[in-house]
Amino acid sequence: MSGNKWTNEQLEAINESGCNLLVAAAAGAGKTAVLVERIIKKITSEENPVDIDNLLVVTFTNAAATEMKERIADAISKELENNSNSKLLQRQLTLLNKANITTMHSFCLDVIKNNFHLIDLDPDFRIADETETILLKMEAMDELFDDIYENEEGFEHYYDLLESYGSNRDDSAIQDMVLTLYEFVQSSPWPDEWLKEHLEYFDISEKCDFAETPWGKELTKNLELQLEGLLNLYRNALSAINNAQGLDSYIQVFEDEMRTLKKLLDVCRNESENKWNKIKDIISSFEFARLPRSGKDADKSVQEFVKSARDEVKSNMKKFAENMFWGDSESMANNLRLLYPLTKCLADLVLEFERRYNEKKKARSLLDFNDLEHLCLRILMHKDDTGRIYPTETAIALREKFAEILVDEYQDTNMVQEMIVKMVSKTESGTPNVFMVGDVKQSIYRFRQSRPELFMDKYNSYSMEKGDKFRKILLYKNFRSRKEVIDSVNYIFRQIMSVDAGELDYDENEELNPGADYKNCSEDDCITGGPVELHLIDTKDGESEKIIFEEETDDTDDSSDAEEEQLDSVQCEARVIINRIKELVNKDGNGKCFMIYDKTISDYRPVEYRDIVILMRSTRNWTDTFMEEMSAQGIPAYADSGTGFFKTVEIQIMLSLLQIIDNPVQDIPLLAVLRSPIVGLTPEELTDIRLANRNASIYDALKTVAEQNEGELSTKAANFIKKLEEWRDKAVYMPVDELIWYLYGETGFYSFAGAMPEGEQRQANLRILFERARQYEQTSYKGLFNFINFINKLKNSRGDMGSAKILGENENVVRIMSIHKSKGLEFPVVIVAGCGKKFNLQDMNRSILLHQDLGFGPDYVDYRKRIAYPSAAKQAIRSRIKNESLSEEMRILYVALTRAREKLIITGSVKNLDKSLLKWGSAANVKDQKLPAYDMLKASNYLDWILPALIRHKKNHCLRKSAGLDDFKGALIDDPSEWGVIFWERNDIISDNTKEEKQEEGLPVWMDAAGKDSFCSEFSDEICRRLEWEYKYKKASQIPVKVSVTELKKRFAAETAEELSAAAAYASALIKKPAFLQEDTGLSAAEAGSALHFVMQHLDLCSPLTEQNIAAQIERMQQSELLTAQQAACVDISRICKFADSDLGRRMCASGKVYREVPFCIEIDSSEFTDGLDDVYEGEITLLQGVIDCFFEEDDGLVLIDYKTDYVPQGGEDMIKERYKLQIEYYSRALEKLTGKKVKEKYIYLFWNGNVLEFK
């Protein structure tokens, strides 16, 4: 029936029947066309026709469903033209309006409407608007928490939950947690059961090996993957050692450590008793021997390489010991059991919130979108006490009705939708009839709880044999893109995508095959296609060697270089892209232009702006810069960023007006309206209003001015107050949407906005606000106050909405969009930007992580001891989420690259290109055809995947040379893909200024030439007086309200830096502990010092301070979780004993009154630390705060002791004394003020060498 030329695989997918059929269709493989053709074949079959209303076709969006109906109608209509007497075709065209070509939500809605009586549902129900659901959830949440504060019965651990995971200000963090968990479990077929089931994970039996828990299995699996990568590092290192000179002495050390890693890997892979403890023991006992001396002729570059590989292994082993395998099986289990009450309280809050929210919906006869799926499932399915699932009579009736179920974009299905399809299909009755089409490589909606695992399970289990009841067909011929694009996509993903990194092995079965026929361009001056371009931008300033994200220094430079605009990486990338767009749309130096094939005219034409799209992973914080840069260069562009609505001036003014109509006693909104075009007061007039009544609200001050009946300002104020009262009266009875439209006309603001720059966009935004109000009025909520409250909640919870769209599809503009929005679309020229931007993995830092399979992953928090760290459950879920997120990022990159039809351009910026090339070269230096999953899962941006693959391309000699890989030992891949790699320096981009910028540079010169004396008038003196006026108390802005003793010490040290320059250079070495000690403890010098201070604060001085006694006390601190094992290990007990045996230590212990870690806060005159303060600043006070390490009391006064753990070289005591002299003086003053007693002696005790420094 169709004129398309189908491939054999497509024909099989169209004609195969009598089975569950999974069609894995790659990007551009024509899966939608196949789906439509299959439907047409079935409904027009002369042998066995199926009425179209007996097919259930499930699409992902309403737009897709509408398009599919139109394509089927067109196909039937065309066939009717040839066979107008066909009753079958006429019948199908008539039934098309009743066809079940719909989204899953629409299908569920039909099931519920026809079976509402089975679930006790009001037949007059309606679907709640998003506005209304937000308000209902807010209301239910507020009521729930108010009731808990009145009576916490049933939520006994609520306050523990609040203290552990709430913020210091309010309970919003807990409310967000409840709402997040509620939304998360809605993707489960049985949300309540999911909560209860995964809650029981925390009830770990005492005899259970932690490695057998879901979290233990995940951590062990992750360790196994990491170890494989580390072993590969050691193999490469040993290979390099064997091929280099002078490093033979390293071989034994590397081989010994490699054997231990293999032993650990074997334990992970094999099942055994007490597996967790075995793994933990090997990790905790793993010691890295000191590397022996290398030969004098050692190859330094190889030596550096093998040492860096070993350092990476060291770092990972330390991470395993500290973060994942820090305790034995019993302690890990106990730790999680302690979290059970808090997790149960959270689950109970969710269940109670759900109950209240459902009651509110029921009272209003409302359903939300989650209800549609769950209520449909209730109608279609029964679940008995044993957990057995079986279909209801309704489901059986639907099974009989539907001859086939066709599911589009199956890779984005969730568990609820999967169960619904299962209930209405005939799979369980032995006659499977589900046709599923999708591409798991394009599954990019995990954040919506889609489960690509459902697709993969079938993909891995279904057979490719004809006649099988469960069959799959692969469609990998791409009918969209040129061969250059397809070859490049295959080349990249063949190396980077695997089961561990990407959740699918990208092999010859998954590769795209060129299917599009692009004929040659007949014109001589035509450029088409071409290699895929990669533009790498080094944003480091080559001259100053500073990364561009660093803040500018206070130093000024009058040179032309200093006047250049300081571009950030986004601007740099935008300008590179703009230059390339200009090159594409304009003719080159030879008069040739880039052309694309236009299917509508079946010929080539020059590329236009509308043919170009810029894709970004996230448009946030990028689109504004790109739009500004493009506007400056005269390139028309449009960005649908989804943000910025509430930040527009016109919307802010209208919202402020609505706020004061609701309540005029709000200073900021009222000032905004008074200053706006609606009233139009000047700053001077606003000042006069404020002065009319300094202590009252602005509204009361405005009324005072209005009552004066003097002058123009009084008239303006009276008129506005009169209008405001009229508007307030109307707001009482007028719906909000009508009120807003009335205000638009009454104030003339709508017309005014249209006359402003970008007036069409501004008016469209105002219409969007009106539409929002109209949607609000259709809910069960009414009134201006509730609408304002709703808008405020919307801004706080969702951030923002996108500005109104005013462009049509055919506008000649460059489009900027996110990769997610581009899915399903295609463009002649695609520029994938921002490939150097780091992946957003912030969700992994939440207090509680959630996973469909692993359940809850909370932090372990003991707020009484002020201890918090990620639990083993959180570490396991974090590991899984990271791997899944990176796999999804890889699929997102695949979607981006496969949008291009004719030209693909990739851009990315890095802070230091040389350093990045070394990193990419190291990742590429492997013999295998596929890059190691270990390295792929370490990626922080798309370039970390693309560049290692490109380095291995046989033709990329220049790239390898740039990466310093002239003697590259990795696999060199001979591939037909063509790449053009272009390097950009930041300074090159800056120097390419426009003529307008250069012209503007001359303006200051002209103004300087005019000179001050050339301007003369009777107002000259007054102008100079005003412009040269200085605030009398200018220096007061530089006086801090509060300072610490440490800050004062640093300030005075900086002031005396020139006098003590030699000493300062010497002193800089004193604050850092020797590297070999830091390596032993794993703690920084400051952390080790803090640990020692903590021990000195809590030591029991009444008992003898022997080594054994001190060790016992430190052990108790560790058991009480006041100290970590690492902190306890770094405390040198012998040094504490040495202090206790000193004269000063014995005096302290003998005193009956010892005070330690005493905080203080005293007032001091600001002139003490701020120079140049004259008499007008007399009485300026600053608070000085600090903590005194120790003091004790004797009969004739106080003795002050300050501990120092600084490293002190021989003869360095005087430097220490000079450095801390000021600090000791302030401590002494504070102590005398606090106690009213004299400080008779002041000491610093140096733990490094046991010396006592006395201050007179």
What does this structure look like?
This protein is of the alpha/beta class and 1256 residues long. 50% of the residues lie in helices and 13% in strands. It has 50 helices and 31 strands. A 7-stranded parallel β-sheet has the order 18-19-17-20-24-14-25. The chain has a 6-stranded parallel β-sheet with strand order 3-2-8-9-1-10, sandwiched between helices. Strands 26, 27, 28, 29, 30 and 31 form a 6-stranded mixed β-sheet that branches. Strand 30 and strand 31 form a beta hairpin. Helix 9 packs antiparallel against helix 15 (340-363). It is globular. The protein starts with 7 loop residues before the first helix and ends with a strand. The model is unreliable at 542-566, 993-1014 and 1054-1081 (pLDDT under 50).
Poorly predicted ranges:
542-566, 993-1014, 1054-1081
Shape: globular
Characterize the main sheet: 7 strands, parallel
Q: How would you state the average pLDDT, rounded?
A: 84
Descriptive key words:
single chain, 50 helices, 13% strand, globular
Summed up:
By secondary structure, this protein is of the alpha/beta class. The strands form 8 sheets. Strands 18-19-17-20-24-14-25 form a 7-stranded parallel sheet.
